[in-house]
Amino acid sequence: MESFKRLNTIGGILMGIFATLIYTLTMESSASLWDCGEFIAACYKLQVVHPPGAPNFLMLGRMFSLLAFGNPEMIPLTLNFMSALSSGLAMMFLFWITTHLAGIVLRKSNETQTDTNAYLILGCGLIAGLTGTFLDSIWFSAVEAEVYSTSLCFTAAVFWLICKWESVADEPYADRYLLLIAFLMGISIFIHWLNLLCIPALSLVYYFKRFNNPNWTGILISLVLSVAVLLFFLSGIITGIVDMMASLELSMVNDMGMPFNTGVILFVILFIGLIVGGLWFTSKRSMAIAHNVLLAFMFVIIGFSTITTVVIRSNAEPYIDMNSPRDVVSLSSYLNRDQYGTRPIFFGYYYTDEPKDINYTGTRWAKGKEKYEKVGRRFEYDYGNTRKKFFARMYDSKHKTRYENWVGLKKGQRPSFADNFVYFIKYQINHMYIRYFMWNFVGRQNDDQGTGESENGNWLSGIGFVDNLINGRLEPQSNLPEDKANHPARNTYFFIPLLIGILGFVTQLNKDRRHALIIGILFLMTGVALIIYGNSPPLEPRERDYIFAASFYTFAIWVGLGVLGMYTMLKKFVSGTPGVALAIALCILAPTLMAFQNWDDHDRSGRTAARDFAKNYLESCAPNAILFTQGDNDTYPLWYAQEVENIRPDVRIVNLSLLGVDWYIKQCRRKVNDAEAVPFTLAQNKIQGTKRDQVLFQENTRIAEQGKYFELSEIMKFIGNDANQLNYGRGEKLSYYPTKNFSIPINRNEVVQNGCVPANRVEEVTGQMKWQLKKNNILKNDLMVLDIIAAVANDGWKRPIYFAISVDRNAFMGLQKYFHAEGLAYRLMPIEANLQQGSPFSGDVNVDAMKENLMSKFTFGGLDKEGTYPGTDLRRMSINLRNNYTRLADKLIELGRTKEAVEVLDYAQQKLLPSNIPHDIYSFPTVLAYYDAEEFEKGNQLAEVILNTLFENLVYYEKMSPRNAKRYKSDSNLYKNYVAQFLRTAEQNGQTEFSKRMKDKQLELGI
Hints:
Elements: H1 2-26, H2 36-45, H3 55-65, H4 75-108, H5 115-133, H6 136-142, H7 147-168, H8 176-189, H9 199-210, H10 216-237, H11 240-255, H12 262-284, H13 288-304, H14 308-315, H15 328-335, E1 347-348, E2 357-367, E3 372-382, E4 389-390, H16 400-407, H17 417-441, E5 443-444, H18 464-470, H19 482-485, E6 491-492, H20 496-511, H21 513-525, H22 528-534, H23 549-570, H24 576-587, H25 589-602, H26 609-619, E7 626-629, H27 636-643, E8 652-655, H28 662-668, E9 694-697, E10 710-711, H29 712-720, E11 726-727, E12 733-734, E13 736-737, E14 741-745, H30 748-753, E15 768-772, E16 777-779, H31 780-794, E17 801-804, E18 819-821, E19 825-828, E20 844-845, H32 847-857, H33 871-894, H34 898-911, H35 924-932, H36 936-958, H37 962-967, H38 969-988, H39 992-1005
Parallel strand pairs: 7-8, 7-17, 9-13, 10-14, 18-20
Antiparallel strand pairs: 1-4, 2-3, 5-6, 9-16, 11-12, 14-15, 17-19, 18-19
């Protein structure tokens, strides 16, 4: 027995070391995309991340960042390693959880403790741990600095502790494990609250252990109570405590005239007093259960108390200070995620229900000089007599067309409850969970995002006829073209991990139904329950499989228990140690297959592309520039680059998605790092709270003379004057703009002197920038963009203004004709662009600046080295970058600088290797550019590569059955059109021999 304990302990530790080693070898070499840049920068300088915050993650990350010993480029490695270590520890706990459960199954099978059984139990832990290690979704998060790996580690630790408690529950002081669980849950809240989904499973372990004759009534009561505890965590603790504190603070300060924080101090004193008093009372009365519950609650609050660091750091005015939660009132808004709105869970309105009015539900407050001041009102839509519907899954009118497509509704048709349920099953369960589950245990087609409107991102097993039979949206798997068959993210496991997992589930269910129920509840709570709570819209910005990592982790337990089922089947033929070895050998096929299949698309070692692309954005800008960005991927990596590696700290990043809220505008008004404050013409009190959240167009015939353009600064003054507001009923007054014809007067000498325009282009400077705004209303972020431009113009254009090329065109405010590309950003200059009709690009090209940036300053993050896998997001960004090289070459050819154009095109091929970023139809402009530069051989070589890919795909489509061919008809027609376009272009450029050769090949292939 003692030897087994020792082997079990050593085995779990070795599993943790092995998994950590795998993740460390494959972790990204710098910051990754999405939230990672924000988290790394925030960990390094202890800043404030997006709501509801993750202060415990940030403090842990700060400690790991010390391992860099001051080397900025090592900072992301230390934080990526924190995720690798966290995931490795999760695999250690997975080993021990599985061996614990396997031992129970054998004991309930009346198996005596033997060496054979010991090896069998350890084999279960080994297979579970290896399977968990190589799970697609877990591996993805384990190699980057995100909260999900650390959250999974806490989830695993909590479940392992309940298993530990279960083993010693009848011993003295065993409940200390329960108190430790409470403490870890309190800490995990501000890493990620997904850990709380363990509570129902934990309650069942407690119920089965403490009650001698469990029954279904007791089980249901236990589950109901556990859900109540879960809801208490979500509403009573995470937001409720701070909400009560904020209410008392408002009352004490505003109603009683007390100093700031009086309510906070009083609440803390009363709260601690109640806990201490309760502990004393329950101890004196020997109320053991109540005493332990209060102790557990106290430990949860100790972990929860780290939220105070958010307020402390926000008051230090860091660069990243999301929502600026500097007092308890703003902290309440921060924790409630007010800026994100809400989604209906059980009751809500359908997307076709139209609001009739607005109901004001509360007041928005902000800290003033002496008290908290009203800065707006909270509201919700009033739907009149329309009742809320049960289980409203289709609720967002922005996604009307996609809802209709998913459930087959006619345009404008009102959905029924049945339609909502169909949407729930087809999209939320099947597409947003089962698809991800199958990725992890069956295989996946590629890593291109699946939206339901495309054929990408499906699961597949690698067994062609099975995939075609079961997976209705998957294309036929025979005769796949090379670009599909050899896609690095095409990973196939032939159902092996899934079948072994099902075998493990059945084995546990037959021998140990109680624990099968416990694991099943954990599996469902971290999967289906999360789907119900999240109520996913029909379009997400990226795949969301990582939020279900704990569910897939749970299923890996059953894969481990599959060793028991396998041995049960084999022992009729070969028993004892040889039978155990054979069972383990057969089951180890699953994680081995997963490891080999997943390695190439999960190995991010040597890749620094996210950091380098951020650097390229910043290097596209002139000194002291203002750069407008929009999404996560063109903002967070830039924050990382500036805050951690000190890359171009003189550039002021202004995120358009945040520019619509007052706290962010206020932050923009102060200097950060080497970047000066952003100038505005509107004072902060003019846009505080909900003021000017929306500004309408209302033509004023007295002001807006026909055809006349009005100065932007004067329009800003008009909008900012409260006397110019219109009454829209219910006491609501809204500002408006009386004309859509805007202008900015230009002083040529001034703009050249201040570096706004290159000296060699002074003759092109227009005397007045004139444009028309196409919108009938503008939101606050649009208003602030115009205001910043007006302020910069008023100051003589001393600050260059740029828009990232990834910004939505709707945010350009009609200024595109004054845009000039200088890399990955458009510069706003008082020179009218030479716009080509039908061009997919905005503005023109500032040739010399763009060439300097693209050829001398840009770096490529490993994409210029063979074997670096970019992933879908970086691949898309790389294609965009490649097109910018082509755009520069086109402009150089237009100016007669053909030799330079060829150098630019060749450089792009060398740095964005086709083996990493394959050429496709989007490279057609590059072929044209080579032809225009009379580099026909290079143009033909590239065209042939693309045409061969098109031919392979067309052959594939031609060999499909009529039913499948119909599904792919649009793709087939698109490729045929491109083939014709390539061949026609070649002929037009005198490449008749090449064109003939390609046509002959086309005829030979029968396409």
